């Protein structure tokens, strides 16, 4: 693993869906310690971009690398924490908040060993960080939208990754959860973690963002550096 | 109850019922969360072709069923992952092919009665040898659930997050399907291929009415599975009824009880939560149409 390589580097990233270019040649480099917000209107390709960065959506042209390695060859997934837009309902089998959060440890665990004390401690810290310790035993699907968002963020936190990718963590989130999210993000930025987040508007997160990228019709139309990276990089 | 233990075949049948009651809901919990509730039915139909092949070639029908249904399950999973039209059409195609193939293959050799016993189960004809095979397969299924449960859980929660965690999602999907196929073969002698999948789904549907977590749902579903399998078998012995339908109807009865119990629990929780945390009181989306009617 090349430790000098940035968390994400995409050049000429192109994604087609049903013949339409959803990403039309995106160049994006995310440096360690960046807190990057991907902005833009609905359908601009924001979610597609972050999924393509993670290799969840294949590129039709161009290339992208995670820590210097193409996604297909990348193995060090414990360095990444992905926060999807929502908690899927699936077939309706309930899962407790703690179960969902604990599953964020999976990239660090061996299937031949049960969860360790370190695993449980990491889950406890993640729950505390988003203020869900008291709801750990509740069914995650019965929580409010904002609380579910915090569950998803806690799942990524539990994996203790270096880089977070969050797809609209603030969408439809109540004020309390927004504040909890901002506090979590401040801690992450302070610890030098890299964060890529998709957002409609920055709101209370604005003071934490180091850089914004604006997408329109699958293209980067504006890049703005807001402030210097403050934390110590990892 | 004591009386039936005097018969060898009933002792074998009871052990088998416990094994089926444990394994089917354990695999079923993942199947339900993955929205593949009809997977077991599809595999059951495909297994029929295996039975036909086994009878036709005078080899072991169980072994042939195991082979064909595991292959079929893997095919379903691969097609499901690739096809854009979705899982239901793929499942339907394999349903019909499997059923037609099985009937056609058994037709030539007066296999009508033995086919019947596989379709609806005939637990009294199970031998000690069969029991050893079933016990071995059940141990394998439970070992897979214990070893891969953590990964399967995340896969069934969110496939993209599973991929972004570096999990081998294609392998895990095939593993779940293949494990379901093994479970179908485990249960087919006792319950019959047409009802086998009920014991994978109904106990889970019952358990999730009253539980809050995934592990809790699985354990309770296994309890419901063992309870309905053992008491269904005992009841069928007592009143001279076919065991498969007795077991399935008991599981359905437990489901109805769980729905009623679940709505009481939720109402009480909602009342307790009204002052503090806002907990929505909506009933979870039901597993299938039947659950929808009863639970909605």
Topology:
The complex is a heterodimer of chains A (234) and B (296).
Chain A: E1 8-17, E2 20-30, E3 35-39, H1 46-53, E4 61-66, E5 80-83, H2 97-102, H3 117-129, H4 145-158, E6 163-167, H5 175-190, E7 194-198, E8 211-216, E9 219-225
Parallel strand pairs in A: 3-7, 3-8, 5-6, 6-7
Antiparallel strand pairs in A: 1-2, 1-4, 8-9
Helix pairs in contact in A: 3-4, 4-5
Chain B: H1 8-33, H2 39-56, H3 61-82, H4 87-107, H5 112-120, H6 128-157, H7 159-164, H8 169-191, H9 198-207, H10 214-239, H11 243-273, H12 289-295
Transmembrane segments (chain B): 12-31, 91-111, 131-149, 161-180, 186-207, 219-239, 245-265
Keywords (chain B): Membrane, Transmembrane, Transmembrane helix, Transport
Subcellular location (chain B): Cell membrane; Membrane
Radius of gyration of chain A: 17 Å
Question: Could you say which structural class the secondary elements and strand pairing of chain B correspond to?
Answer: mainly alpha
Number of helices of chain B: 12
Order of helices and strands of chain A: EEEHEEHHHEHEEE
* Portion of residues within helices of chain B: over 70%
Any low-confidence stretches of chain A, pLDDT <50, length ≥5? none
Any idea what the shape of chain A is?
globular
Question: What fold name goes in the CATH topology slot of chain B?
Answer: ABC transporter involved in vitamin B12 uptake, BtuC
CATH superfamily of chain B: ABC transporter involved in vitamin B12 uptake, BtuC
The secondary-structure element order of chain B is: HHHHHHHHHHHH
Based on CA atoms alone, the radius of gyration of chain B comes out at 19 Å
Task: Please give the number of β-strands of chain B.
Answer: 0
Strand content of chain B: under 5%
What's the architecture of chain A in CATH terms? 3-Layer(aba) Sandwich
Keywords (chain A): ATP-binding, Nucleotide-binding, Transport
InterPro entries (chain A): AAA+_ATPase (IPR003593), ABC_transporter-like_ATP-bd (IPR003439), ABC_transporter-like_CS (IPR017871), Metal_Ion_Import_ABC (IPR050153), P-loop_NTPase (IPR027417)
Pfam families (chain A): ABC_tran
Protein name (chain A): Metal ABC transporter ATP-binding protein
């Amino acid at each position: 693993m090349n430790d000098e390589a940035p968390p994400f580097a995409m050049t000429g990233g192109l994604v087609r869906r049903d013949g339409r270019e959803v990403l039309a040649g995106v160049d994006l480099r995310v440096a360690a310690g960046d807190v990057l917000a991907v902005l833009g209107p609905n359908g601009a390709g924001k979610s597609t971009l972050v999924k393509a960065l993670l290799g969840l959506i294949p590129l039709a042209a161009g290339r992208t690398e995670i820590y210097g390695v193409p996604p297909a060859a990348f193995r060090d997934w414990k360095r990444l924490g992905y926060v999807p837009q929502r908690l899927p309902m699936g077939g309706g089998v309930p899962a407790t908040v703690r179960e969902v959060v604990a599953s964020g440890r999976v990239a660090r665990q061996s299937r031949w060993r049960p969860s360790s004390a370190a695993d449980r401690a990491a889950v406890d810290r993640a729950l505390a960080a988003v203020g869900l310790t008291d709801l750990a035993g509740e069914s995650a699907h019965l929580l409010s939208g904002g609380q579910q968002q915090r569950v998803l963020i806690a799942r990524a936190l539990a994996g203790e990754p270096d880089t977070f990718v969050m797809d609209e963590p603030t969408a439809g989130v109540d004020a309390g959860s927004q504040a909890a999210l901002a506090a979590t993000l401040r801690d992450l930025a302070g610890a030098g973690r890299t964060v890529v987040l998709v957002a409609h508007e920055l709101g209370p997160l604005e003071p934490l963002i180091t850089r914004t990228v604006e997408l329109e019709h699958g293209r980067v139309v504006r890049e703005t550096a807001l402030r210097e990276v403050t934390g110590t990089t990892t | 109850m004591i009386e039936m233990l005097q018969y060898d075949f009933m002792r074998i049948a009871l052990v088998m019922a416990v094994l089926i009651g444990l394994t089917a809901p354990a695999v079923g919990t993942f199947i339900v969360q993955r929205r593949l509730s009809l997977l077991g039915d599809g595999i059951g139909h495909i297994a029929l072709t295996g039975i036909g092949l086994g009878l036709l070639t005078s080899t072991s029908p169980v072994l042939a069923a195991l082979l064909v249904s595991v292959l079929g399950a893997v095919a379903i999973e691969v097609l499901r992952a690739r096809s854009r039209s979705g899982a239901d059409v793929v499942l339907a195609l394999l349903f019909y092919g499997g059923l037609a193939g099985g009937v056609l293959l058994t037709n030539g050799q007066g296999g009508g009665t033995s086919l019947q016993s596989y379709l609806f189960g005939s637990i009294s004809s199970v031998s000690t040898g069969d029991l050893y095979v079933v016990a071995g397969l059940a141990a394998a299924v439970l070992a897979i659930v214990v070893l891969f449960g953590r990964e399967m859980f995340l896969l069934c929660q969110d496939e993209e997050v599973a991929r972004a965690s570096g999990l081998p999602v294609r392998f895990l999907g095939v593993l779940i399907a293949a494990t379901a196929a093994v479970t179908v073969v485990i249960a087919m002698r006792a319950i019959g291929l047409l009802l086998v999948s009920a014991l994978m789904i109904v106990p889970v549907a019952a358990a999730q009415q009253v539980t809050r977590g995934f592990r809790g749902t699985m354990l309770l579903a296994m309890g419901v599975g063992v309870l309905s399998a053992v008491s269904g078998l005992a009841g069928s012995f007592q009143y001279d009824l076919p065991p498969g339908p007795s077991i399935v109807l008991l599981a359905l009865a437990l489901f109805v009880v769980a729905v009623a119990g679940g709505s009481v629990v939720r109402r009480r929780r909602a009342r307790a939560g009204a002052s503090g945390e806002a907990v929505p009181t909506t009933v979870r989306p039901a597993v299938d149409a039947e659950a929808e009617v009863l639970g909605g």
